[in-house]
Structure formats: structure tokens, C-alpha cells
Specification:
Elements: E1 3-8, E2 19-25, E3 39-42, E4 46-47, E5 54-60, E6 65-69, E7 72-77, E8 80-87, H1 96-114, E9 118-127, E10 132-133, E11 136-137, H2 138-152, E12 163-169, E13 174-181, E14 186-188, E15 213-216, E16 221-229, E17 232-233, E18 236-237, H3 243-262, E19 276-281, H4 287-298, E20 303-307, E21 317-326
Parallel strand pairs: 2-3, 9-12, 19-20
Antiparallel strand pairs: 1-5, 2-5, 4-20, 6-7, 7-8, 8-13, 9-13, 10-11, 14-15, 15-16, 16-21, 17-18, 19-21
Helix pairs in contact: 1-2, 3-4
């Protein structure tokens, strides 16, 4: 079962066979007929490009099975499972902590039912991530719900946890997409940073549940996921107010994580300019300066920039990356 990552400003045809799952970046809703595959719509403007949206897809070489379980739209090909769940916040309804816990609890029930219990990568998006409700920042509420679901689902919240990101977008539901498989991800940490799951209590009552990166192994391949990475050294945000320095520090962290991953790689190793990147930028006016940093660090590697809020209010930029190599 071979996995392929596709990216294009143009939409993929709804009838395209063998798509396991996909993402749509941009404010515009999907045009035309809804695709048959699970689609995560990241409601964030695309920056610094001559197109309003950007499409990404994971493609396999055989027709996937498909289903909907507890609101999760999923597809399975062999031992690969991709799914998307969206839960809307409503006035007077459940808050973000509860919705986060519910979403992950449903996700874990699906994984267990499919016999594919190991999360590899998770993409989390929510509105107003730095806002507060009931005296607690919304990102910290999300972390509370996520961690509770991990514990109730008999998953570890330290060590062997998936790669992930969590960003704030213009609006819409809590949106979670995931890729899972039959074997645990190989978690990678960054010696320049405290592991996120060991952050001190000043960052909230529950630490974030993710690894800095993960190596995973679809049949005959090695897939590297580098989680959302920002200008953090130790556990502290650095270069406050300086987007260029933050972008460079973020890429310094990515480079170190890549070195750590390559020490455990089975494929011969990944290199910076062969990865594909998403860059999240808090202020649209900063886009040219951030793009210049990326050009000096990764050359012509694909980088898509979107307007989004990073999980800490003082952080201006965050980057994530992935690479796929044969074994």
C-alpha cells in the first residue's frame, strides 16, 4: 500500500479515485460537488500567493473503504486510516474543553474498532485560540479536553504521542483531522526544547499532548511529520515582537528536530529542502519577511503560508513540515 502526498492550487476532481483524505486551505468553501473523501477545511486565508485556496491530498494505490462513525468521516486503505471530525460550538452549548474531549474520545473508539490504534499525525484548528472563557485561555481548555480523552482512552500523554499542531482560525467549528496506523509512531523530541508534554504549570493545567516530530512507516515507506514548531527555547517564547527572528528560530528548531529524526531514520535521512511546509503567520503584513526567511533556509521547497493564530499570543509564526521517502 503506497502513500502519496499531492498539493495544488487547483481542486482535485471529486471523482478522483484512491484519495484517502485531503485538506483545503482558504476561506472559500469547496466548490461544486462535495468530494467523496474526508476533507478538512482549514478556514484561513492563503497568503502571498495568486490563488485564494490550496488543496492537499493523501493518495493510495487502491480504492479505500469509507464510512462515517460518530460524526467522523473516514477512509481506510489497507492499514492506513484518515479521518476528519468537526464539532460546532453553539451558544449555551458545550464549551471547547468538552468538545475536544468528545472529539478525541470518538476518534479513539474508531481507531480501536478498526484495529488501528496508533495515532500518527493530528491537525487541530479552532476559532479564537487565544481568547478566554470561564477564566481560562481557550487553547488551555482544548488541552484539558484532549488530555482527558487520551487518559480515558488508555493512551499515554507523555512519550509515545503523535505529531500534531493546534492553530486558531477565523471561525468555524473545532476541526480535527488525523492519520493513524497499526504500529506506534517513533516520537522525536528536540534537545533545545522542553518536551511539550512536560511543560510547567504556568502554561496551563494540562500540558499539550504531542511530540515534536514522528517517524511512521506505511508499507515500504518512511513518513516524517514535524509538528507545529515556533520560536521557543526551553519552554519559553523568545524574540518577542520580531517576526524575522522568530521565523529563523522556528527553523533552527526544525533543523534540530530533523537531525534527531535522521539519527533514527531507516530511509537514509531527510533534508530540509526536500520537505513540504505549512507556515502559519499571525499578521498578513509579515508574509514577505517570513517568506524571505523560508527561501534562505529551504530554497525552492514548497511552502504554503496561511493567516492563523499561534497557540501563544506572543508568537507570530509557526511552521510544520513533512517528508515521505521510500525504504
Amino acid at each position: 500500500m503506497s502513500l502519496q502526498f499531492l498539493a495544488s492550487p487547483a481542486p482535485f476532481e471529486p471523482a478522483t479515485a484512491h484519495v484517502l483524505g485531503a485538506g483545503l486551505l482558504g476561506l472559500q468553501a469547496p466548490a461544486g460537488a462535495a468530494p467523496a473523501w474526508p476533507l478538512q477545511h482549514v478556514r484561513a486565508p492563503v497568503l502571498g500567493a495568486n490563488h485564494l485556496s490550496f488543496h492537499e491530498a493523501w493518495r493510495v494505490d487502491s480504492a479505500p473503504l469509507a464510512g462515517t462513525t460518530e460524526g467522523i468521516h473516514w477512509r481506510r486503505a489497507g492499514d492506513l486510516l484518515f479521518g476528519v471530525i468537526e464539532l460546532a460550538e453553539t451558544p449555551g452549548g458545550a464549551g471547547l474543553r468538552t468538545l475536544s474531549e468528545q472529539a478525541y474520545a470518538r476518534l479513539f473508539r474508531l481507531l480501536d474498532a478498526q484495529g488501528l490504534p496508533h495515532l500518527w499525525r493530528v491537525w487541530n484548528y479552532m476559532a479564537d485560540i487565544n481568547g478566554s472563557a470561564d477564566g481560562l485561555e481557550r487553547y488551555r481548555q482544548f488541552n484539558l479536553g484532549r488530555a482527558e480523552a487520551f487518559l480515558q482512552g488508555a493512551r499515554s500523554v507523555v512519550g509515545r504521542v503523535p505529531a500534531a499542531c493546534a492553530l486558531g482560525v477565523a471561525g468555524g467549528p473545532l476541526s480535527i483531522a488525523f492519520l493513524a496506523g497499526p504500529t506506534p509512531a517513533v516520537p522525536i523530541e528536540n534537545p533545545r526544547q522542553v518536551s511539550a508534554y512536560h511543560y510547567p504549570a504556568e502554561y496551563g493545567p494540562r500540558s499539550p499532548t504531542f511530540s515534536r516530530a514522528a517517524l511512521v512507516y506505511p508499507p515500504g515507506q518512511e513518513l516524517l511529520f514535524i509538528s507545529g514548531t515556533a520560536s521557543i527555547v526551553g519552554h519559553q517564547s523568545v524574540h518577542l515582537g520580531d517576526v524575522v527572528a522568530q521565523a529563523r528560530e522556528s527553523m533552527d528548531n526544525v533543523a534540530v528536530v530533523l537531525e534527531q529524526a535522521n539519527q533514527r531514520s531507516r530511509s537514509g535521512g531527510h533534508v530540509l529542502d526536500e520537505l513540504s511546509y505549512r507556515m502559519y503567520i499571525r499578521h498578513a503584513a509579515d508574509t514577505p519577511r517570513v517568506q524571505a526567511v523560508m527561501a534562505e533556509r529551504v530554497g525552492a521547497a514548497p511552502v504554503v503560508c496561511v493567516l492563523a493564530d499561534v497557540c501563544r499570543a506572543e508568537l507570530l509564526v509557526e511552521v510544520e513540515a513533512q517528508g515521505l521517502r521510500p525504504l
